[in-house]
Amino acid sequence: MHNLALALQRAGHTITGSDDEIFDPAKTRLKNAGLLPESEGWFPEKLNAGIDAIVLGMHAKADNPELKRAKELGLRIYSYPEYLFEVWKDKKRIVVGGSHGKTSITSMIMHAFKTLGFQADYMIGALAPGFENTVNISKDAEVAVMEGDEYTASILDLRPKFHLYKANVGIISGIAWDHINVFPTYENYLLQFSLFIDSMEPNATLIYNADDAEVLKLSLSHPRTDITKIPYRVPSYLVRDEQFTVEVGGKHYPLDVFGKHNLSNLAAACEAAKYCGISEADFWSASQNFTGAANRLELLAKGKHGVCYKDFAHSPSKVQATLAAFCERYGQRKVSACFELHTYSTLNADFLPGYAGSLQGANRAAVYYNPHTLELKRMPPLDPDFVRRCFGREDLEIITDGNTLEGFIRGSASDNSALLLMSSGNWGGLNVKALAAEICE
C-alpha cells in the first residue's frame, strides 16, 4: 500500500493515508515523501466528499471507522487490485500467476525491459534489483507487468486478486495448494486458476509451465478457444564450479541466479518479453546479470567459512524446489537448512503432512517456530514430535526458542559449508543477516 501511495504521488496525485501501525521501511519512506500521517490510527472526520477515491488495504476490517465514513459519503472505494485495473485498463496487462515464482518472474520481466530500454508500468510483491519502488504508474507506457496474487482482494471483496486484472497475457507458473485459511480444499484452490483463465481478455495469450502436471492439464483442457496457449519448459543448462549456464539457440549464457525453478521462471519471462517484441537472444543476454528479487535465494554472506542464503519459501513446493536448487549448486559442500513455520498454513496441523520429504536434500536440517506466533494467530500449540513426523525426517531438529536457533546457525558454519534459511517470517526477531556475516567470516 505504501508503495502505491509513493507511485501515485510521483504521478502527480494528492495522497493521504491512515493505518493503525506503520513499520519500517514503510515508515521512513513515507516520512521522506511527506506522506506519513501525523499520528497512527483512524480519523473518519478527515474524510470529505471532495476525495476522488479510497483505496482499501487488504487487512482493513469491516468495522473500520474510515471505511464506514467513506460509505456514508458515497465515495468510490477500490480494493488494491481494483484500483490497479482502473489505472491500467487501457494498457496491455501481463499478469504473472501461480503458486510459486510470481515475484521472480515479474522481476525478471521488469529487469529485461529496463535493460533493453522497453518502457512498462509494473506492480510486484517485493523489491526487484535496480528498482526503488514495487509500483510504477505512468502515462506513456503501453504495457503493465503485474504480479497476480491468488489471495483475496479486501474485506469487501473475497475474490482472488489476479481475477480482477483481466490479463491480456496470463502466466501460470505452477499449482500447489496454498492459503488453506481461504481455500479449505485443494479442489477449491485449483478452481481459482481455471477462473483466472476465464477472466482473461478476449483473444488473450496464456503462457503456461508445461513441466507442471497440474498446470499442463488445466491449460490444455480449459474450454476457451479464443486464447493463444504457449508452453514453456526448463531450458538446457549445465552446472560447473557452482556456476549455472543456460543453453538457448546454440548460445551459452552464464547466470547469476541458479536452480531449475529459476531457469523455468526465466523461460516464462522470456515468452512474455517475446510477446512485447523482444528477441530471445536479447532477453537471455539481458538476464545474465539478473541477481534475483529480494528474499528469493538472496545471498546474505559469503566468506572463508561458507555461504549463507535466505529465501521466502514457505509452501511445501517452494521449500522443496528452493532446497533442491541450493543443493544442486552447493552439493559439494556440507548443506544445512532451516525452515521457519510462520503463516497460517504452515502452522496448521492439517497442512503440515504436505511437507513430507521437503527437507531431505540437506545434510543437516531444522524447523523453527515461535510458540508466541501461534498465540497471536489464536492457533493450538504444535507438538515437536508431530512436526518431525510430518517432515518425514528422524534427525530433524525442532527449534522453538531464539537461543537454540542462533546455536543451530552458528553450528552450521565450517569450512566448505552452505546454509539456507527459508522463511516468510522474521526468525523471532533474530538478525540473521548480521549473524550470517559473522559466521561466514
Number of domains: 3
CATH superfamily (homologous) name of the largest domain: Mur-like, catalytic domain
The dominant shape is: globular
Indicate the percent of residues in helices. 25-40%
What's the number of helices? 14
Q: In what range is the share of β-strand residues? A: 15-25%
Supply the helix-strand structural class: alpha/beta
Count all strands and give the number: 20
Low-confidence stretches: none
- Rounded mean pLDDT is 95
Predict the CATH topology of the largest domain. UDP-N-acetylmuramoyl-L-alanine:D-glutamate ligase
Largest sheet, strands/sense/barrel: 7 strands, mixed
Task: Describe the protein in words.
This protein is of the alpha/beta class and 441 residues long. The chain has 3 domains: 2-75, Rossmann fold, CATH 3.40.50; 82-287, 3-Layer(aba) Sandwich (UDP-N-acetylmuramoyl-L-alanine:D-glutamate ligase), CATH 3.40.1190; 298-440, Alpha-Beta Complex (Protein-Tyrosine Phosphatase, Chain A). The protein has helices at 2-10, 26-32, 65-73, 80-88, 102-116, 186-199, 213-221, 260-275, 280-287, 316-330, 371-376, 384-391, 402-411, 432-440, and strands at 54-56, 77-79, 92-97, 121-123, 135-136, 143-147, 152-154, 157-160, 169-172, 205-209, 228-232, 236-240, 243-248, 251-254, 298-303, 306-311, 334-340, 364-368, 397-399, 417-422. The strands form 5 sheets. Strands 5-4-6-3-9-10-11 form a 7-stranded mixed β-sheet, sandwiched between helices. Strands 15-16-20-17-18-19 form a 6-stranded mixed β-sheet, sandwiched between helices. The chain has a 3-stranded antiparallel β-sheet with strand order 12-13-14. A hairpin with a 2-residue loop joins β12 (236-240) and β13. α5 (102-116) crosses α8. The two termini are 38 Å apart. The relative contact order is 0.09. The mean pLDDT is 95.
